[in-house]
Amino acid sequence: MDTLDTLKARYLAAVAAAADESALEEVRVAALGKKGEISALMAGLGKMAPEERKAAGAAFNALKDEIDAALRARRAALADAALEERLRSEWLDVTLPGRPRRQGTIHPVSQVMDELTAIFADMGFAVAEGPQVESDWFNFDALNIPPEHPARQEHDTFFLHRAPGDNRPPHVLRTHTSPVQIRAMMGQGAPIRVIAPGRVYRMDMDQTHTPMFHQVEGLAIDRDISMANLKWVLEEFCRAFFEVPSVELRFRASHFPFTEPSAEVDIRCSWQGGQLKIGEGDKWMEILGSGMVHPRVLAAAGVDPDQWQGFAFGMGIDRIAMLKYGIPDLRAFFDSDLRWLRHYGFAALDMPDLAGGLSR
Fold it and tell me: May I ask the CATH architecture of the domain 112-347?
């Protein structure tokens, strides 16, 4: 037993002296590994007489358990010490103020949406929203778009998959926010004055088009609304949005299934040194489409066209953001490039308002 006591004392001392995990593992292998001293002792039990084997086996097991317990305790102590060192060296004062370079910025699309909302709210327009996955009826039929119209073909519109035998109406990713106007009229009736900003989807991709983009549409329905009201609203919007003292708009006759009469709207501008200036010059640039709401659209939304009339307009949010803030490529809006976002982004807490300035 003196030999076992000596062995125990030596290994307990080695365990206590182990400075790290690797040193502790060396002690474990030397004592309890397949070729370790204590393992070798236990392997010799088979050569002993039964009575001697019984006593020696109990002593060897007790020694093994004691060394194993010491190894576990030392391993836990080393882990605690390592954690304490990490906490000491990696300590961070979370009460310190944030670093300015890590502050986020508002995306130009979100900024322009806020600007639109502020401008039209000042003119009495509420914000209406609707689903991005729409039924064929809301997206086309209710808007007087005939079955043969190119927009209803798969080369222009994203149709959702339908299993064979599925007789439910087809659904699409909305191609415009006009379905929101239908839903707003069905829910609220007339009179009504709303704008509908949001994402829309079309199969197109180049420098000025992406498969997903943002659009805002406006709707005003009352008993005696005319094109003169539409012209005033659009002029006031352009003047406020581009932050110029005056603007000049030109209405060109056009055709949209959901308005009659319809008009494309151009704005007077100039390009001097590659810089766009709104409200001056001898150039014209198209910015939106508009018109008086077609009587069939009013009827589809449950509004009596003999009693009510009004105007609607629509424009691309990404496009007017490009024009106002000099962004050359629409695709960069969706690249998630932090350098681009830092350059074109807006301060997170500067909410646009007409009194304080839209784009401070």
Answer: 2-Layer Sandwich (3.30)
